[in-house]
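Shift notes (night). Ran Type VI secretion system baseplate subunit TssG while the centrifuge was going.
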Amino acid sequence: MRRGDYAALRFLSIFEHRLFALMVRAHARLRPGFGGLSPAEGPAGRIAFALLGLGLPSLRGRLPLPDSALLPHAGLAIGRGRSAMGMQVVLQRQLGVAVKVRPFRGRWLRIEAEDRTRIGPGGRYQRLGQEAQLGGRVWDVGSSFTIAAGPLTLAQHLALLPGGAACRALTALTRFHKTEELDFVIELTLKPEAVPVLRASTRPEQASRLGWTSFLAGRQQGTATIRFRAGEAA
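Came back to this:
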């Protein structure tokens, strides 16, 4: 090298380049985003989509938010069941508000006429202690839960009302969390300083919405809470 001969150095650089290329390739495989692709496009993204049940491209694009937003929560999808705590984490991160999932919300379920006990020779469901029942409804605590969001600013409250973008996202994410067979109620709580004063106006953006943003006591009543079923948010 002192005499200006760099042949040996360039020969050794061939092996150095090879080792460096292997290191970069290993990093690209194990670290999402290192290889120049977004995490959703790399190998780790494909694995995460598969864990979420979105492994096939035909299954994606059904939510009112980018599918890639779910990738950080793929670990919550591992296992046979998806917990209320996992749902709470997903909703809080995606909606940007405090969320609490309260399971076991009791409600009355109507028993259809053909499923009720009938006594007599042609009766049905008559075995005591097994299938016989009195009345036309039953109290159930296992098929419904509550999603409580708040305390909220007025802007957050409006976005989470039926028809709002955040409400559509909340409903879609909850249904995506494998709760198609469950019913749920959305509960929104406004901060005391965010409770609007009751106002009548011919301009829709300024008028109070009955049942949604209309509170007789206004800011004097402290926090304000409204509840509605998930079906109303569709």
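Helices lie at 7-30, 43-51, 84-95, 154-160, 165-176. The CA atoms of residues 69 and 94 lie 8 Å apart.
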